[in-house]
Design a protein that fits this description.
With 938 residues, this protein is mainly beta. Helices cover 10% and strands 36% of the residues. 25% of the residues are buried.
Length: 938
């Protein structure tokens, strides 16, 4: 089945092919093909004969047979000739290479055979051997695309094509031809755009292309200058960039060639006859433009400039000016003329009108002034525009007497002042001044006293006589005469300190002043301003205000910034001026130029007082609004106070830690900001009384706390303390029998001992222990005899060898009235302590029991009362003797139960026994608080 389908398809294709061959045979081939090239336009026109109206056209580059065009076009035959015509625009110049064309007819079902090739030769044929480049000198609009070709010389190689200095990518068209295409070309320069073809042998071939714009002229206007001919002007548009003569724009005016002249931005052509309708045609290779205009002659009159301008009569205040016209027809024309007067102080314009106007009177001129005069006129009835200006003409007016001076009197102090006047301007001096005359008169003088001053002067000093008013007159003089005198009477002096001067703030570069009207201001007011507290020749300015005004605007642009000015308003009457109101202000406030003065710091306890003086007024440069106090450290400033009252010049910093260093900085500030500030440093110290108080309290508190801590510690460690400092002493064991018969014990005294031995037959069996007894000399009737303790002789020592019975009860108490007077009778040897305080006395001096204390020998009589004696010893200045060690005292009642014991002195002067007789019994300690504390007793 499939085989049959395939066979049917092949048969159908064969039939269709045979039908196509039969159709081709039926269409005739176009004949009579001719080619007509238009080289400048780069077009190729084709003509041929055929009965068909649809054709296929193919165009080749002949040498390489590259297809340039393959297109089907519909072309109808010309009814008259029966020929078909078609034009092709070549993208490249036709000279670049040969082109071949063929054509065939076509209908909806068939096509004819191709016609024979027709060829037009190019410039690259072998017969032309020279190098060339195309197109040459072509004019194209800006932004167009263009193809350039280079034909290399025979037997030469191609290198590159340069456009505007840049190498372009080239395409080969034939054996010797290479082409480039440039898109969106920019406008050419004055000489056009160069395209250069290079070969390796440095042979150059080039072409020039002119890229520009079509004409763009606008605004054709025609007018008459002489009431007969016409001048048409217009404004040229953008530059066409076509500077070559053959490419320039050509103009025709109403069909006549026009060679335009340039006058500023406008170009113009003239015509000898006025025509109401005008047409201007502008043409260049890239385009054509037409401009039109229409008007009547009387509506377009543009007068020429007046000539022979001159002043025929010149006075101080007026002058007559006349001129003439270059066109006679102007004498019958209604015209208006404009006169411009220019001097160095003013400029004015005046208008005059008339028929054929040729002279005017200039009034209101100023004497001795040069005026520059220019004149122009125009048609009055149908004004079109002002005519041309005349050449400048100078008029110099004559001199006249000067105007009266503006005079004011400024008081330096209560008895000195200056009369001031404003220099006259050129228009008011009416001529060069030669000087001033100043006259003054008082009630005590009969006439005027003239003083002559140079023309450079502007003030004169006056000394006032007490309170007498002085009237001063000032007049200016020039070669024409003397001005009217201006008089002023000295006002009363009013210092700023005598008035309440409010602040004056500048607003938008002005001082706005206002005051209450005064009934005495018959001659108005004077506003005066001058630097505050200025010394010497201060700049004083003033302005007079009519009596009807009670306000004034003072511009601050002429005032110095940061300078305080005093502004005063005076009332002018028949007599002396009186001060009405006064202000002080700044045109522009600035930060103070210098910090505060005399900054000091004083300490009071833990407080610090800062004090200063304000900056001098000339350095304030603004109203001081307050002060800021800073605490300064190495890193930054810490604000501690802001004083908004400028009259407060001190500040107290409270509660500062003592023994520390501080730096304080004080800054004054205005509305413009703070100054740099002034710094003061201080180290706070403690007061003497406080230091003494602290020096006493602190050690006492420390000692008290230490004692408490030590006591607590010792109480808790009392066993250890007792063991460490008061160990138990074992009792002595005495061998032998102490109950033997009593006998005297001779003790041989030491050579240097103060103790001497005496024999006494007495024996006191009531003694339970060894006790000291006084010397024999002390037992004499005169108990007040002083013992010579400084003697070199050995002292008498009486010693009792006595056994103290266990059952004996001794209730003896040692006499504390004096150790030197107590004695115990004995039949044996007695031990006498000469000049040594008794144990009882020692108990009164030595507190706390044990310990060794040397005693200084007192020079006081031993017989004196004990109280006085202790007072002497308590005086540190008299403690020059010797003090014995305090003995162990048996203050406890338990002491009665001790048996008699043999003790030994702790020193040669000791009267107490430190070792008890019996070793079995421990000696009890003293009953003082310390012993109780160590014993743990409460």
């Amino acid at each position: 089945m499939q085989g049959w389908v395939i066979l049917a398809l092949l048969l159908s294709l064969r039939v269709l092919r045979s039908q196509g061959q039969n159709g081709l045979a039926e269409l005739p081939v176009p004949h009579g093909l001719t080619l007509r090239p238009d080289l400048p336009a780069q077009t190729l026109s084709l003509t041929w004969q055929s009965d068909s109206s649809l054709f296929d056209i193919e165009i080749f580059h002949t040498e390489l047979m590259n297809v340039v065009l393959n297109e089907t076009v519909a072309v109808k035959a010309d009814p008259g000739t029966g020929q078909h015509s078609w034009t092709w625009l070549s993208p490249s110049p036709l000279e670049c290479t040969s082109h071949s064309v063929r054509i065939r007819a076509r209908n909806q079902q068939a096509v004819s055979q191709w016609s024979p090739l027709q060829t037009i030769p190019g410039s690259d044929i072998p017969e032309k051997t020279e190098s060339s480049m195309y197109p040459q000198d072509k004019v194209v609009p800006v932004g167009s695309n263009m193809t350039f070709c280079c034909i290399v010389k025979e037997k030469y190689d191609f290198k590159e094509i340069m456009y505007l200095g840049q190498k372009m990518s080239a395409t080969r068209l034939s054996r010797r031809t290479y082409a480039i295409t440039v898109t969106n070309q920019p406008a050419s320069g004055n000489t056009g755009t160069n395209v250069v073809c290079c070969s390796p042998s440095l042979t150059l071939t080039g072409a020039v292309v002119f890229v520009g714009y079509p004409p763009g002229d606008v605004g054709l206007v025609c007018e008459t200058r002489d009431l007969a001919s016409a001048e048409c002007s217009w404004e040229k548009g953008r530059d066409t960039h076509l500077k070559r003569k053959i490419n320039r724009t050509n103009y025709t005016l109403n069909g006549r060639d026009c060679l335009p002249a340039n006058e500023g931005k406008r170009w113009w052509c003239s015509s000898k006859v006025w025509e109401e309708n005008w047409s201007l045609v502008a043409r260049n290779p890239l385009g054509t433009i037409r401009l039109t205009d229409s008007a009547q002659l009387s509506d377009r009159v543009h007068l020429l400039a007046p000539v022979n301008v001159m002043a025929v009569e010149v006075k101080a205040w007026n002058a007559t000016l006349q001129w003439s016209w270059p066109v006679a027809a102007y004498k019958k024309l209604e015209m208006v003329c404009q006169l411009q007067l220019i001097s160095h102080e003013l400029s004015s314009t005046r208008n005059y009108s008339g028929t054929g106007l040729s002279s005017v009177m200039l009034e209101g001129l100023w004497p001795d002034v040069d005026y520059n005069v220019t004149l122009r006129c125009g048609s009055k009835n149908a004004f079109w525009k002002w005519g041309d200006k005349s050449a400048p003409y100078i008029i110099h007016t004559k001199m006249d007497r000067p105007d009266a001076l503006d005079v004011w009197f400024w008081m330096d102090s209560s008895n000195t002042g200056r009369v001031l006047w404003k220099p006259l301007s050129v228009r008011k001096s009416h001529g060069a001044l030669v000087g001033y005359e100043v006259c003054q008169i008082s009630a005590e003088e009969d006439g005027w006293t003239p003083v002559y001053l140079s023309p450079e002067s502007s003030s004169y000093s006056i000394i006032l006589n007490n309170s007498i008013d002085i009237t001063v007159a000032v007049a200016a003089r020039n070669p024409a005469g003397l001005s009217q005198p201006s008089t002023v009477t000295t006002p009363a002096y009013r210092a700023d300190s005598q008035l309440s001067v409010p602040e004056l703030l500048a607003t938008n570069g002005t001082f706005e002043l206002s005051w209450q009207p005064n009934a005495n201001a018959s001659r108005g007011y004077v506003v005066e301003w001058t630097p505050t507290r200025c010394s010497g020749l201060c700049p004083v300015n003033w302005e007079k205000v009519p009596e009807s005004d009670s306000s004034f605007t003072l511009k601050t642009d002429g005032l110095e910034e940061g300078v305080r000015y005093t502004v005063s308003v005076y009332v002018l009457s028949t007599g002396a001026a009186t001060l009405l109101q006064r202000w002080q202000g700044y045109s522009q406030e600035m930060i103070p130029a210098q910090p505060v003065d005399e900054l000091s710091v004083n300490q009071t306890g833990s407080d610090v007082l800062l004090s200063w003086k304000p900056t001098a007024m000339e350095h304030q440069r603004g109203f001081i609004r307050g002060y800021t106090i800073y605490l300064e450290n190495a890193i930054h400033l810490h604000l501690i106070a802001n004083i908004s009252n400028p009259e407060v010049w001190s500040y107290r910093v409270k509660g500062l830690p003592l023994n520390s260093s501080y730096k304080f900085k004080v800054k004054a500030y205005t509305s413009a900001g703070e100054d740099t500030g002034r710094t003061v440093a201080i180290k706070t110290e403690m007061d003497t009384a406080d230091m003494l108080f602290v020096g006493i309290l602190v050690p006492l508190a420390v000692m008290f706390c230490s004692l408490i801590l030590v006591s607590i510690c010792c109480y808790k460690k009392r066993k250890w303390v007792k063991k460490a400092f008061y160990p138990e002493i074992p009792g002595p064991k005495v061998p032998g029998e102490w109950s033997s018969s009593q006998g005297p014990l001779d003790v041989k005294p030491s050579p240097h001992s103060l103790v001497h031995i005496v024999e006494s037959p007495e024996w006191d069996f009531s003694k339970k222990s060894l006790v000291p007894v006084p010397e024999e000399e002390e037992e004499s009737e005169n108990d007040n005899v002083e013992v010579d303790t400084d003697s070199d002789e050995p002292a008498l020592l009486r010693y009792y060898n006595q056994v103290v019975g266990d059952g004996s009860h001794s209730n003896h108490v040692l006499d504390s009235s004096g150790s030197s007077t107590a004695s115990v009778g004995s039949t044996q040897t007695e031990i006498t302590y000469t000049g040594i305080q008794s144990p009882s006395s020692s108990q009164g001096v030595c507190v706390g029991g044990g310990g060794y204390r040397p005693q200084t020998q007192s020079a006081v009589d031993p017989a004196e009362p004990q109280d006085d004696f202790e007072a002497v010893f308590q005086d540190d200045g008299l403690n020059t003797g010797y003090k014995p060690q305090c003995s162990w005292q048996l203050d406890s009642p338990e002491a009665e139960n001790f048996s008699g014991s043999l003790g030994s002195p702790t020193s040669v002067t000791s009267s107490q026994f430190l070792i008890p007789e019996s070793s079995e019994e421990k000696p009890q300690s003293s009953s003082t608080w310390f012993h109780s504390f160590l014993g743990g007793k409460s």
